[in-house]
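Trying the structure run again after the queue cleared.
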Amino acid sequence: TEAAPFLIATAQQLADLAYLVNDGKPFKGMHFKLTADITLNDVNPSGIYNYEWTPIGTVGTFSDNDFEGYFDGGGHTISRLYLDMHDRKSTGLFGALYNAVVKDLTIEDSYLYGLPDENKAGMLAGYTYNTQIINCHVTNSKILAYFEDGGPTKTYVAGLVAYANISNFSGCSYSGNIKVIHRKGYANVSGLVGNGLRSTLSD
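Done. Tokens:
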């Protein structure tokens, strides 16, 4: 419940949530809350991220594994998130959100990289449906996406959420660099939301 949520304090507990959601448990209507800042990669002087994050939720060819609960960041920060968008249809801290709420969370010093293949890639989430994103921020982060000749026809890349359907965003922001090397195909690139279908954005 909101009064007694599942508490997440470590990177392993956050990864456990991803494992369970990707295994088919959506946690519909259940509440989770961060109780501490979490660093997903150790600081490396060479700037290399050693650990690639597996998103919470997936978009599949025939069916999805969505997170359908409430995630309260508690004003905490997840830092040094490393995402590779290759071979995934939806990439982010969350791969797929459905009838969900994510609030009061900051992602910082993070890196999203790769060769998209009809991918939806955002720092916070790749895909959202009927979801509320409240007071979520991405700071001091970088996105690099590159497309080979004859590349994908439908790719969405964004600082916050790549593809939003019937979703609402309030008090959110992105600060950092986004670089897209694009020769052929179709790419929709944005600082906040790559594609907002029947969605709203407010301060």
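Residues 31 and 70 are 5 Å apart (CA to CA). Worth checking whether this holds up in the mutant runs.
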